Amino acid sequence: MNKQNNSSDKNSSNKGSHVDDIVDVSNVVHEIDNSEDLTEIKWQRSEDGSYSPSSYINRELSLLQFQLRVLAQAASPRHPLLERLFFLIIFSSNLDEFFEIRVAGIMQKLNIGDVSSNDQGMRPSEVLKEISATAHDAIDEQYRILNEDILPALANDGIRYLKREELNAEQSAWMKRYFTEQVSPVLTPISIDPAHPFPRLVNKSLNFIATLEGKDAFGRDINLAIVPAPRSLPRVIRLPDELTGGKEHHVMLSAVIHEHIGELFPGMSVTGCHQFRLTRNADLDLADDVEDIAKALEGELENRRFGDKVRLEVTTNCPKALSDYLLNQFELDSSQLYRVNGPVNLTRLLFDFNIPALRYQPFTHVMPKAFRRDVDNLEKPTSMFAAMRKRDVLVHHPFHSFSPIINLLWQAASDPKVLAIKQTLYRSGTNSEIVKALAAAARNGKEVTAVIELRARFDEASNIAVANYLQEAGAVVVYGIVGYKTHAKLMLIIRREEDRIRRYVHLGTGNYHAGNAKAYTDYGLFTADADISEDVHKIFQELTGMGKPANLKKLMHAPFTLHDKLMGFIDDEIAHAKAGKRAHIIVKVNALTERRLINKLYDASQAGVKIELILRSICCLRPQVKGLSENITVGSVVGRFLEHTRVYYFYNDGDERLYCGSADWMDRNLFHRVEVAFPIEDKALFSQIYQDGLQNYLKDNTQAWTLNGDSTWQQIHPAAGEAAHVAQEYLLKAINGVEPAI
Asked: Does the pLDDT at position 27 exceed 50?
């Protein structure tokens, strides 16, 4: 598939930008000038073709660097104020998961033995040491942004989180009534004495440690107590309008408890009260030979609340004697203690402030032209099918609406010609229109098959509920393949038309989740292509039945053909480069960790292939290293929407290949998950993805970051006099007509 005007050509490089006044952007995301100094990294290549550990960036440290790029958004005045607060909350939530899953996993390795792995040759203790240093600095910066930037700016706009000492007499009286009526009845103070050992605390729960003087009701000398904060109560409490003049003034639940904690210990004196929070290992461990995944998961979900301890957070004013006591109780060391200057859980700062001026400008999610008539004529149940028969239709979320997916399912549910619907569900919920439509189709007598991945992390309980709901409606529910998560995004509708069977398909890069579709960038393809539809049919047969891997015509799928095909595509580019021809690879995925693909990209770079990688988070490849990866650049865009599209492009001597898919370039996706990558064959859609989804992001000089060979990231800024280009805002303007914020 040839395009006459390829904007990635050498003459299209942008020579004006700079990266923090250090690296010219032409060496970052457009064109590489090999006369520039490259990173000097000691690396070696063995006779078997493998590269030395120093050739790679540590996976966990790379993921932590992504969290820092998210944190940087909270400090950026480019974003509206409440959105900056939201980025701060996202960072807090992301860091929680990082400790629950990644740090916990490293600690498990350390318990087995402090032995260096192939991952950059670092021992678990070395990785933990670097994580601790980086995370401590990041959390200090997080609370500095909160206390010095965001909270004062919110106060200027009438939004305040009041401290106890800032309340007037009337507000204090109201808070006392609130404590007595709403809080005290659900509090359970736990004294620490021989009859009451230190309680087993739930993962990430807010707790208080109180120091006491005096005797309790039984005459005992009690000097310590733990007060868990009830999870059933809101962490942010809005004061009544009559006490604030209608202003957005709030108090934290922690302040309410702290102010009145003495009432929980009548006859005794509370000499100190301090918040703390414990983070535990929250990863689930299921054996491959379980007989019932759903029942096994339900048991593991309970264990998640009380996994191994990995982190302790206390407030900055907590005395060392108390923090040491807590560390001892939890068997943690001082490197795992984090002192925070504010609430110990910033995710609970989230509140639904109805102040549009402090949020992103809302926009209407556009309906693709091919389906617009259907919105006006929903009484015609065949209209979406007719549109798909004419040509493939592409949606680019969140700029395009998620409604076509929902509308297609509802039309199929009520269409007497539709015989069967098959769909994969990775993250969903019982309130989802997708799930409701599938249930309605089953009740209407359609053969509905739902392949539900119960092990989607932190959505396990929701997915179990969805499975039960669909089964009650009469759908066939399959949990996929034990040992392989079903991560592919597939929908198949089978319809009888004029005495023949026709299949209609939707394939996507993102989950069938309406909320995600408003916050994540993703591609979705609607097609009635016979070969692709047949391939999807065969994959569903793999998922629900048994037998050998399907022989597919157009789709690539993991864990069978995807990795080998990608390796072959890179080999083709290497052969073209060695023949003196133009060779070019562009990959946009969330993460790159798979070692053999990285090695192959190194080989390609050394052969002269131009390689441009756009990665949201993790990158274990070292770009721009002399002799190793001189022709590879790595960029990352972090902005209003979470980048989630997966696109693989290969120039292929002018017969260009472009695939979208569900798989990142990670070991788990390529070898331990069911994934699908689908070709974009329509020339107009090919050009649309190439320009909007790849070149547009390579041109970003405002929200983009570049990775250096030494594993550091730097943000790109427009040069003096150069126009700013923001990839996501360009798409908002081009597709939705929203004026840029800059």
From this structure: no
pTM of the predicted structure, to 2 decimals: 0.89
**What CATH topology corresponds to 369-551?**
Endonuclease; Chain A (3.30.870)
- Tell me: the pLDDT tens digits for 562-584? 999 999 999 999 999 999 999 99
- Nearest CA among 448, 460, 451 for reference residue 284: 460
The token pair at 503 is 């299949």
Query: In Å, how far are 411, 442, 526, 537, 648 from 532, measured between CA atoms?
Result: 21, 25, 11, 9, 18
Q: Is residue 78 over pLDDT 60?
A: yes
What are 340's two structure tokens? 């925070």
Q: How far apart are CA 517 and CA 513, in angstroms?
A: 6
User: Where are the domains positioned within the chain?
Assistant: 14-48+558-736, 177-288+300-353, 369-551
Where does 177-288+300-353 sit in CATH, by number? Answer: 3.30.1840.10
The letter for the amino acid at 15 is K
The catalytic residues are: 487
Three-state SS letters, 24-70: EHHHCCCCCCCCCCCECCCCCECCCCCECHHHECCHHHHHHHHHHHH
Say which residues have a Cβ less than 8 Å from residue 494's Cβ, sequence separation at least 6: 418, 419, 420, 421, 422, 501, 502, 503
CATH topology for the 14-48+558-736 domain: Endonuclease; Chain A (3.30.870)
pLDDT digits (tens, 9 = 90+) for 375-423: 455 455 458 999 999 999 999 999 999 999 999 999 999 999 999 999 9
pLDDT tens digits, residue range 599-624?
999 999 999 999 999 999 999 999 99
- Say whether 369-551 and 14-48+558-736 share the same fold: yes
